[in-house]
Amino acid sequence: MIELAAVGGYSEVGRNMTAVKIGNDVVVLDIGLHMENYIHATNDEDVLNISAELLIKSESVPNVDSIRDWEGKVSLIIPSHAHLDHVGGIPYLCGRYPKADILAAPFTAAVLRNILNEEKIRIRNKIKTLDVNARYMQSDEVKVEFINITHSTPQSIIVAIHTKQGIILYANDFKFDLYPVIGKKPDFAKLRLMGDKGVLALIIDSTYAGWYQKMPSESVARQLLRDVLLGADNKGRAIIVTTFSSHIARLKSIVELGIKLDRKVVFLGRSLAKYVAAARDTGIADFTANVEVVKFKRQVSRRLKRIMKEGKDRYLIVMTGHQGEPNSSLYRLAHDELDFRLDPGDHVIFSCRTIPTPTNIANREYLEKLLTKKGARIFRDIHVSGHSAREDAREMISLVRPKHIIPAHAPLEMTSKMAELAYEMGYAEHKKYKYSPVAV
Amino acid sequence: MIELAAVGGYSEVGRNMTAVKIGNDVVVLDIGLHMENYIHATNDEDVLNISAELLIKSESVPNVDSIRDWEGKVSLIIPSHAHLDHVGGIPYLCGRYPKADILAAPFTAAVLRNILNEEKIRIRNKIKTLDVNARYMQSDEVKVEFINITHSTPQSIIVAIHTKQGIILYANDFKFDLYPVIGKKPDFAKLRLMGDKGVLALIIDSTYAGWYQKMPSESVARQLLRDVLLGADNKGRAIIVTTFSSHIARLKSIVELGIKLDRKVVFLGRSLAKYVAAARDTGIADFTANVEVVKFKRQVSRRLKRIMKEGKDRYLIVMTGHQGEPNSSLYRLAHDELDFRLDPGDHVIFSCRTIPTPTNIANREYLEKLLTKKGARIFRDIHVSGHSAREDAREMISLVRPKHIIPAHAPLEMTSKMAELAYEMGYAEHKKYKYSPVAV
Amino acid sequence: MIELAAVGGYSEVGRNMTAVKIGNDVVVLDIGLHMENYIHATNDEDVLNISAELLIKSESVPNVDSIRDWEGKVSLIIPSHAHLDHVGGIPYLCGRYPKADILAAPFTAAVLRNILNEEKIRIRNKIKTLDVNARYMQSDEVKVEFINITHSTPQSIIVAIHTKQGIILYANDFKFDLYPVIGKKPDFAKLRLMGDKGVLALIIDSTYAGWYQKMPSESVARQLLRDVLLGADNKGRAIIVTTFSSHIARLKSIVELGIKLDRKVVFLGRSLAKYVAAARDTGIADFTANVEVVKFKRQVSRRLKRIMKEGKDRYLIVMTGHQGEPNSSLYRLAHDELDFRLDPGDHVIFSCRTIPTPTNIANREYLEKLLTKKGARIFRDIHVSGHSAREDAREMISLVRPKHIIPAHAPLEMTSKMAELAYEMGYAEHKKYKYSPVAV
Amino acid sequence: MIELAAVGGYSEVGRNMTAVKIGNDVVVLDIGLHMENYIHATNDEDVLNISAELLIKSESVPNVDSIRDWEGKVSLIIPSHAHLDHVGGIPYLCGRYPKADILAAPFTAAVLRNILNEEKIRIRNKIKTLDVNARYMQSDEVKVEFINITHSTPQSIIVAIHTKQGIILYANDFKFDLYPVIGKKPDFAKLRLMGDKGVLALIIDSTYAGWYQKMPSESVARQLLRDVLLGADNKGRAIIVTTFSSHIARLKSIVELGIKLDRKVVFLGRSLAKYVAAARDTGIADFTANVEVVKFKRQVSRRLKRIMKEGKDRYLIVMTGHQGEPNSSLYRLAHDELDFRLDPGDHVIFSCRTIPTPTNIANREYLEKLLTKKGARIFRDIHVSGHSAREDAREMISLVRPKHIIPAHAPLEMTSKMAELAYEMGYAEHKKYKYSPVAV
Q1: What is the predicted ipTM?
Q2: Partner residue facing B7 (CB), from A420, A431, A437
Q3: Could you tell me the residue ranges of all domains in chain D?
Q4: Which fold has domain C2-214+386-439?
Q5: Does residue C47 carry a pLDDT above 70?
Q6: C389 pLDDT exceeds 70?
Q7: Do D178 and A217 touch (CB under 8 A)?
Q8: B64-86: string of b/e by CB count within 10 Å (b at 16+)?
Q9: Which residues of B touch C232 (CB under 8 A)?
Q10: Residue A270 DSSP one-character state
């Protein structure tokens, strides 16, 4: 018998975690971190006090207490990609599963190691890397296979767990991008093969299940950036771009457009430095030749001062702060805490979407107000998402033809849209409930 | 074993229908009509062509084909109240269950009979009336009990089906109103008693499960009406009120305020006439002494002409058309198709909410545009809903302590909010899915 | 010639200030404080550093530099009512107009004095009180008249400035409430008289100009409160109500319902204490006999501890924090910083609307999340606004028939709705622009 | 003295019309048609009854009565481009100005002539064509200049009226597209030159003034189309695309992608035929070689029948109906009124945005519901707008540095955003109103 525990991430975005029990073996897929809750929870805390218990109680990490009886059986932890809501909880919770190996694609593993270094957390679990379309035999019962897929960070994978009862397919997060800026196209052939072999259950990213679209390619985001960077008049102006640090493809487009603009590209901030290093170390992209990366807070301010001096129109500045996070570089710049003056007509490009939580909306609104007061030109939403929309999901379902569809990675409003799609595609209506005799 | 078929109305508002199979007996709760789909479907059709098949295909009535194998066993059809989305499908579908009796409160029965007369439909099923808190023994296995509840039409009931496995409680639609304008307060004692006896499943109205409120009393709507009718300057002006024809309590408030204003109250339109007659015939409210009811189209126009002549400020006019329905009285008035002139400063009071479908929104927008062009003063949303909000639902669950909660009467966005509430109240999280061996 | 300077508050809610120059005399109407900007601006500041300049730059108070040339001429400062967005900037800016007297209704004056005491600010201007429908002769040229009006704080007035060119009428903020819970009804007769005498310009509250309604009476809010307090099951539960501290009528309803519930009413927090004292001192409402007011932070925690001990179901607790403000009493309670335990089923009643800025929305969402986690029942929006809606505005315009209408107290989206109403009522369309010869 | 009459289109999208009086000469810019109002107004009317009066009263065309005293002086009517909200009112209103010539770019003129033919309207005004960057001398006083600009239909122009007092610049509608799919880039040099010469007033498209963006290039729309047409699995499926008939660039992309897909492209419907013919006749694009255009209703159905027979996966079908218009081809297809069967998995691509009026929203919702019921895959919003966003507007203002900015082509919510931008850019705050003595 196969049991599946939806530990976290089935009604929200943040604390993703799924546990699959096959016989006596348990495989854990993703252990994510809910950033907003994490920040609230650790706000007034000493770093040394950040216990797993505190993080569970504050809903920063999945509530693993619900699978306490499985604890001794966990043999594998597989983060599907390098985003914090998938990998960020591992440092705090993997200690519960001391015998489990962590299995990840090289980039994901590199990012995880970076986090461990930075937070000074030591773990006992072994980290093993696996190619994005390799197979791994854990036991007679359990075979794991990676299937490379496109998403907004490199080396994202769909995980297939082969069992005697069929395949469990874990497709959190993905989109089908036929024109990716970096990396391979989705492996359609292998997905179809899974379908042929028999998929028992598909756990599927439902973030945009209510969008009646195919999610546009990352090459469209590149085009949008080209339009803004080469098409808007920026002579004599500063250009500041802010985007997701883990989005190496996006950064690549920015760098290449910076070169076309004949501006020197600088990346400012610890988070950018971390992901850029991981990309270089794993051979995905090496920006060394064309980009100057400045990591530490004090250096950032000094570097900006020099930019002011040399002429800010000679630079393209990439920095963190796209969600308006207090204390991000962009926030501090807007707040006059850095040695940089924004003048009327300077460009600030948000190559992202505001992730629509009330906190982000409030933070962005405040940040944009500060920027606008200085006369900056704001370019919002120069972005395309990395998540599947309704029509990507439909193709995924058509390809792998699962027996069961388990919507995930979204609040109920959206997972219910995925259920609607499944129903539309002929999955049973389940409109009859049966009650066996019950003693009340 | 008890089986429950969610035939319709579990992911939308309109085609409500639930079938409960207890042994060899099937009880049907509600057979509703989806008005918008019905209008689209029957638009170009000859009345004689309106078959059950057409109505099923067009999603105007519940798809009863899904319980075709139960057909012969249906012994009772129980409409919970007089709204069309609960009672309006009976004329078209009860023929499928020729042996079933229709069991209803007197007002509901009267409305059903009116519809049958009007549409010239003859049915073979017997219509039996039962008091709002009476019991009915159908067989050894099946006992039915009515529990009076507050809602936006009189004599609404919660249906309890007593079985050996426990009680099935059908609470579509309800709110807890302690200060109702008409009828009794909810029967809390009996609900608590149900809980004591053991409720197997509660089917519950989720229309506003996402509203963090207790739904305000109808007496608040009365206060809002008072405020607008007595508090706004209407000297020398026409006053037109439009509201739900079936909302006898609302009509009562309007009539009483009309008397206070010293204006003659007239009700215009077939639909108003129908419900007012049912209310009078069942002893709920008799407006005869104070209201002139004009039923037929031709008379409506003549009556309005006379109002113009006698002085429109001597009248309070109640008419249909609150959702902007094309060809409603108010629509035709705004369109200059009736012998009545709207002047700047005349009052049009919408004692309703726009039911937020795109069609209604478009219709209302167009109607209000016409009214505004003539200078009419528009008073929107002079209304309180008849549906439970989150805190009513919480109290219902606390009172009856069901083993299972089945959210109904809303799209998935809202039923999922009800699920959230259940979870909040400690109902099991169901985060573990189990798969027994499956041959793929 | 009369000149009118829209110093602040004509495209936002917060920094209200209007200056009217009649000959050599300047009358200032309101000097408001923008709370959100004020909090941001003074966050990291030492109280001693809070200069007028800082507050102007941070858009916390009106930018009075725009009428610098009028400075010497200001003879009167008239706050229209006791809300901070109308009176809160006076302490910081009245020093610019040392010769100006401050003229206010008794309650408004008392609140202003309280603020000055609390912030330890000394001003040189004389504070004079005037009855809510008295007249005041400032000079041959300038006569000021107060007209009592209904709003969400006591003794709100409309200010009439009589000049040889006609009357300037300042109607920020108001609604027409014919059933007020406290104070007199609006003085319609006097408003009509203003119209007869000739109103040159009406400056009018546009907060809800896009709401096609008459704003409901405060007596409706009272009914909503009754419904929630007497109609929801709170046996054995805590009841916490949070509302606007300055809303004495609302507090009165809460106190009276508390008595009906046979619970002891306690008011917790400095802000409540301040307004309650002002209401008592000016003879508006004396809660002394029925309410225990606890002012200081330390006492609040102690009092809550005692409530826990004595039985929280014997109390009705009123506290600050309705917008989710960090560090408000309710926030700290939800955060476990006070000696009070919220249990599942305890009631938290928000007798307010979330003022829809991103910051408030984020704060409220976070607060409600904390409350929900503890199982509290949340009752939102038990509230009716104190601002005029479209149909109140229409009546005001009909009564006073101004030559010019100047929409105020709202962003452009809403002031443009007021302009639309004016156009609807026959005010000239101004669709022809004329350009006299211009040297380019 | 120059006078400017904002006859229509300054607070809505639809009935655009501006009249500029220079001495004794009046130039009219655009005479648009409000389609929704037009349809409502002419619904039950005999075509012969469609008088200018009816159209004015129903707000289908601009209310030219407001410039009745200028009637005899109108010497020129200049439609800025071929959209109906700019050119569609000319047939009905140009008779009021019998002496006026109509001056238009070749494509615009061709479309106008097509409409006249189709509606069988004969006008006496001469239609003169002018190249998109030509000059035209009307009199000593009045010189007109066309400036080519990018928009969503070919040969759109900005109109410059040179007067002794400066230039009047009419920029309705435009965006700055540096990578247009068809036609020239915007003529930045000439716009800057206008600025140097002195622009008295800029009338500017404010449709998206509240979008903090530069509007993306049409080449992005092309990329989006490529993604959907080449990137989604459509083997064996029908592909139906619906878009704006006047959008020749979009049609070009569709045709080219159809060729890549190796499918035969057919255009169905009268409206498409009309614009395609105009594009061919004016040398803009000739689809003859690659597209089969079917104009008349009866032929459309026959052609679809043949497509069914030959295999629908051999075709790419382009048809009207993107806003869900009842009786459009797509509507009739979804309604089973055409000889074409939609099967599960067939593609329907909306290469447009739903223009957000309640009517369109309702129509689209109904259409999509029908399509979904048949199992069609829907791809929404494969589109980029032709209107300037905030940052295009900022560049326009920077280039031409007008003395006055007149926001147009949007409801007040948006024109107020344009005013906000102007204020941000340093245009005077106008916060002081002056009243000269007034006799009341």
Answers
A1: 0.92
A2: A431
A3: 2-214+386-439, 218-379
A4: Metallo-beta-lactamase; Chain A (3.60.15)
A5: no
A6: yes
A7: no
A8: bebbeebeebbbbbbbbbbbbbb
A9: 214, 391, 395
A10: H
